[in-house]
Design goal:
Length: 301
C-alpha cells in the first residue's frame, strides 16, 4: 500500500466536450505526497490547480476545478482513471480550459496510463476509512457511506424514459480489475432534445456521437448501440470515482447512491474531507449542515 505515480511522461490530443476546441494533454510523473495537480500551460504564467475539494469550482454537467478565475473543466473521467488504477501522484498539463472528452469514457485515459506504466513510490498511501455512517438526502436523491474494509459501491438511477428506466448495481468491490472491466468503458450520455439548449448555454459544443451516448425519442442514436445494457448507471459510478479522487486518499467504505450526480457526489466528498482533516488533527467533527440538504451524521463522524 505505497503511493504510485506513472513511470513515464505521455501525451494525447482531443476535443473538449463542452468547448469543442482541440486540447493537448500531457501526463507527467510526480513526487510522492504531491497528489494530482492540473497545470494550465496555455497561459502566459502557467497556473497549477491541485485536485482537492478546496479547488472544486463547478459540478453542473461536469466537474471543474479552479484557482481564482483559472479553471479546468471536465476533469472527472481522467480522475476516475487515475483513481481506478491507483495513481496517487501525477502532474496533468493541459493547454486549454478543459480535459479532452476522448470517447466519453475513461477507457482512453486507462490506455494512456497503462502505456506510461506505474511507478511504486516509497511513501505509504493515504487511506480514509469511515468509522460512522454519513448520509446526505436531497428530496428523492441520496448518498450514504457506511464502514467497510474496502471501497464498495451500490448505485441506482431512475429515469422516466424507458430507454434508461431504473438501473441498479449492488455492492461491487471496486478494485483495479473491476474498475477496468466494469466501469472504464461506460460513456457519458445526453438527450438529443436538450442539445439545442446546451449549445445556447455555450455547453456541449464538442459533443457528438463519437463521445456521447445520445438518446433520441425511442432509441439510442449511436450506430453501435450501448457498450453495456446498463451503461448509464455504470457511467454514474465512473463519475463517482472521479469525484472521490479529489480526496487524495483511498476511501474505505460502502457508498450507496440513489439518483446521484456530480453535485451529490461532491457533497459526500466535502463531508469526507472534513472527516479526513479531523482524523489528521485528532479533533472531533461537528455536525455538517449544508444549505438545503438534510445531512444525518449518525453519531460522531
Ligand atoms: Zn461523466
Amino acid at each position: 500500500m505505497r503511493q504510485r505515480t506513472i513511470a513515464e511522461k505521455i501525451s494525447c490530443t482531443g476535443i473538449g466536450l463542452h468547448t469543442g476546441k482541440p486540447v493537448q494533454l500531457t501526463l507527467q510523473p510526480a513526487r510522492a505526497e504531491s497528489g494530482i495537480v492540473f497545470v494550465r500551460t496555455d497561459l502566459t504564467h502557467p497556473v497549477e490547480i491541485p485536485a482537492t475539494p478546496a479547488t472544486l469550482s463547478r459540478t453542473h454537467l461536469a466537474t471543474a476545478i479552479g484557482c481564482g478565475d483559472v479553471t479546468v473543466d471536465t476533469v472527472e473521467h481522467l480522475l476516475a482513471a487515475l483513481y481506478g488504477l491507483g495513481i496517487d501522484n501525477a502532474r496533468i498539463e493541459v493547454d486549454g480550459p478543459e480535459i479532452p472528452g476522448m470517447d466519453g469514457s475513461a477507457a482512453p485515459f486507462v490506455f494512456l496510463l497503462r502505456a506510461a506504466g506505474v511507478f511504486v513510490q516509497g511513501t505509504p498511501r493515504r487511506t480514509l476509512a469511515v468509522r460512522r455512517p454519513i448520509e446526505i438526502r436531497d428530496g428523492d436523491r441520496s448518498i450514504r457511506i457506511d464502514p467497510a474494509r474496502e471501497l464498495r459501491v451500490s448505485y441506482a438511477i431512475d429515469f422516466e424514459t424507458p430507454l434508461i428506466g431504473r438501473q441498479k448495481l449492488c455492492d461491487l468491490v471496486i478494485d483495479e480489475a473491476c474498475f477496468e472491466r466494469e466501469f472504464a468503458r461506460a460513456r457519458t450520455f445526453g438527450f438529443a432534445d436538450q442539445v439545442g439548449a446546451l449549445w445556447q448555454a455555450g455547453r456541449a459544443r464538442g459533443a457528438s456521437l463519437d463521445n456521447t451516448v445520445v438518446l433520441g425519442d425511442d432509441r439510442v442514436l449511436n450506430r453501435g448501440g450501448l457498450r453495456f445494457p446498463d451503461e448509464f448507471v455504470r457511467h454514474k459510478v465512473l463519475d463517482l470515482l472521479g469525484d472521490l479522487a479529489l480526496l487524495g486518499s483511498r476511501v474505505r467504505g460502502h457508498i450507496r447512491v440513489e439518483r446521484g450526480g456530480h453535485s451529490l457526489h461532491q457533497k459526500l466528498v466535502a463531508a469526507l474531507a472534513r472527516v479526513s482533516i479531523a482524523e489528521r488533527s485528532g479533533s472531533e467533527v461537528r455536525a455538517l449542515r449544508p444549505q438545503s440538504i438534510r445531512l444525518q451524521a449518525m453519531g460522531r463522524l
